[in-house]
Amino acid sequence: MNNTESLAWFKSSYSGAEGGDCIEVAAGAGAVHVRDSKDVARPALRVSPDAWAGFVGLAAAE
Length: 62
Hints:
Blueprint: E1 10-11, E2 23-28, E3 31-36, E4 45-47, H1 49-61
Antiparallel strand pairs: 1-2, 2-3, 3-4
């Protein structure tokens, strides 16, 4: 299990003040971690930096 407590988490810029559906992202050593900002006790999704860049590129094109 990876320790994600020491990571610097950043909330999505699409998150509203009402705390709607949000994600948080943190860059770790060789991986990008993604978690639900409303349930940070759950394990984070861990993806490679290349996979994250591909996802962000596709999401930005929408």
